[in-house]
Amino acid sequence: MNVLLIGSGGREHALAWKLAASPLLTKLYAAPCNPGIAKEAELVALDIADHKAVVAFCTANAIDLVVVGPEAPLVAGIADDLRAAGIKVFGASKAAARLEGSKGFTKDLCARFNIPTAAYGRFSDAEAAKAYVRKQGAPIVVKADGLAAGKGVTVAMTEAEALAAIDDCFSGSFGAAGAEVVVEEFMTGEEASFFCLCDGTTALPFGTAQDHKQVGDGDTGPNTGGMGAYSPAPVMTPEIIERTMKEIIEPTMRGMAEIGSPFSGVLFAGLMITSSGPKLIEYNVRFGDPECQVLMMRLKDDLLVLLEAAADGQLAHMSARWRDETALTVVMAAKGYPGTPEKGSVIRGLDDAEQGGAAVFHAGTALSGGEIVANGGRVLNVTAMAKTVTEAQKQAYKAVDRIDWPGGFCRRDIGWRAVARET
Ligand code: AMP
Ligand code: GLY
């Protein structure tokens, strides 16, 4: 099969790495790509916002399957445009991508189909949102409705903080994404990420993970896109997975079909495991980044077969098998992240780092004068797998320490919660 992979981050490098291992793969193309992905795929100079150009490329190169990594092209309708041209695609339609593209849409779906989530209100003007906050009191959570690159959420410990977050949203800090806000109940518990491959009807459980959103050790400092992750998530016991499927995922699949937007692609549920069971924090319509990196390391089966089955509506006949080990990834970021990361610093020792069996996925790198340089906030995902999370953590940091990159930094405690459970 000829496959086009869309995206350019660590998630897509991990997908490319796993797709490249498929005996069914003839040729893998990638756009916009990065130097890590380029080891597995042929880089294509394509503007992925230009759907006509993407369709033309697929037709000219006999592409059998397009795999879309990030959410933005899905929200922009790339899957619809490809399907309309008769090209098979793994990824949600524009209407189904509202599960990530609009928090208000998802909350209304939860209310209508009885899916457990935080109580909420939707507001398109600041005064009404503020009145709701004053009535509910703190702690409370304020979210910009639309896509805000992971930055539109304020978990407010005080009423003043919540009121300020509302002003922030409506003053245009998140552009159009903040034209509406969702204000919701603060939930407590342990967070976990749960993934399903979906084909419009069937949802196939596709692994669990936990990530670390905050930039500093001990989960301190500002939020980021994720500083590291591990899989499986110990909190996702078989019983919690079963409840999540019955109470959250299956009603979502039925609800999306009923409203005429069947969900196909990958459904990523951000969950809070509360004392009364799993509750939905949010949906994403893509793999987590860096959660995907640890999932790909653990997946035993052929990813290409599974993604094609999802695109073909054939998941009812499929299963996914996982290595009975823990995979852990450490994100190395450029100094300055999550503020303004310094670009261009030289990174060496990457081959060395992979000697012990670790994999280094490229997230934000570029080639410059024959050297790999930093070209983004999150730059590398150093990933290892072992029988225990303690050992996986040790191996991942051993690989990190082989990388010669004075311009970068990482957290030193990825996996701490699971490590503490083991000791
Ligand atoms: P989101 O972008 O919706 O995943 O939110 C980012 C982070 O904010 C989540 O990972 C949680 O840590 C936190 N969060 C979001 N909603 C809630 C909530 N209702 N209660 C507690 N924490 C939340
Ligand atoms: N690591 C969290 C995310 O991909 O949304």
| Quaternary | single chain
Got a strand count? 23
Cα-atom Rg, whole angstroms? 21 Å
Number of helices: 14
Biggest sheet details = 9 strands, antiparallel
The distinct ligands, each listed once, are: adenosine monophosphate, glycine
In the predicted model, the low-confidence regions spanning at least 5 consecutive residues are none
| Percentage of residues assigned to helices | 25-40%
Silhouette: globular
Mean pLDDT: 95
Walk me through what this model shows:
With 423 residues, this protein is an alpha+beta fold. Strands 10, 11, 14, 15, 16, 17, 19, 22 and 23 form a nine-stranded antiparallel beta sheet that branches. It has a five-stranded parallel beta sheet with strand order 3-2-1-4-5. Helices cover 31% and strands 29% of the residues. It contains 14 helices and 23 strands. The chain is globular and about 60 Å long. The mean pLDDT is 95. Helix 1 packs parallel to helix 10 and helix 7 packs antiparallel against helix 8. Bound molecules: adenosine monophosphate and glycine. The site of glycine has 7 residues, from loops.
